[in-house]
């Protein structure tokens, strides 16, 4: 079961990428999230996101426990969940503005995930899989709020 949890936590090995595994995982999440939005809308992406969050808490917690680290650098499922959350405000129209909005969701999420301003940084102190996932969930929610504002006010 632990091997499967590590496989899930690393997003099928993406987290083992030699350079910027979090960025690679976020990039991998973009087309999947966009397709879910395109064919199912935000409610379906939210359902998938909630599933990924639950799965991520379980898998990354076991992953961390199996290697004796609080937050394994190779755990990447948290980036997928956060990136999906950041994409929730998108309403696909099949136009160039979709690409701009997807790039904005990516840049915003990576910014907040890497910089981790307060209070996002405090969430890393939570124990186990919750601590691994919580800061990325918060970064995704902040990114979604900013993206929503940018879309609402016609900035994108």
What features would you describe in this structure?
This protein has 156 residues and is mostly helical. The protein has one domain. Helices cover 71% and strands 0% of the residues. The chain contains six helices and no strands. The protein has helices spanning 2-9, 21-40, 42-67, 77-87, 96-115, 128-152. The radius of gyration is 15 Å and the shape is globular. The termini are far apart. The mean pLDDT is 93.
Layout of secondary structure:
Blueprint: H1 2-9, H2 21-40, H3 42-67, H4 77-87, H5 96-115, H6 128-152
- Low-confidence runs: none
Radius of gyration: 15 Å
Strand portion? under 5%
Please summarize the sheet with the most strands: none
How many domains in all?
Answer: 1
The overall strand count is 0
Q: How many helix segments?
A: 6
Helix-strand category:
mainly alpha
Task: Give the distance, in angstroms, between the N- and C-terminal Cα atoms.
Answer: 44 Å
Helix content: over 70%
Overall geometry comes to: globular
Could you state the order of secondary-structure elements as H and E?
HHHHHH
Average pLDDT figure = 93
């Amino acid at each position: 079961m632990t091997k499967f949890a590590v496989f899930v936590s690393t997003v099928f090995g993406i987290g083992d990428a030699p350079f910027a595994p979090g960025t690679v995982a976020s990039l991998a999440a973009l087309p999947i999230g966009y397709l879910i939005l395109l064919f199912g809308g935000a409610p379906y992406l939210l359902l998938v996101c909630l599933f990924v969050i639950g799965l991520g808490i379980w898998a990354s917690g076991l992953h961390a426990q199996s290697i004796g680290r609080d937050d394994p650098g190779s755990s990447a499922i948290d980036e997928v969940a956060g990136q999906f959350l950041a994409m929730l405000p998108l309403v696909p129209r099949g136009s160039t503005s979709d690409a701009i909005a997807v790039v904005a969701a990516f840049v915003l999420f990576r910014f907040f995930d890497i910089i981790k301003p307060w209070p996002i940084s405090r969430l890393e102190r939570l124990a186990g899989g919750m601590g691994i996932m919580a800061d990325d969930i918060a970064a995704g929610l902040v990114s979604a709020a900013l993206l929503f504002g940018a879309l609402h006010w016609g900035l994108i």
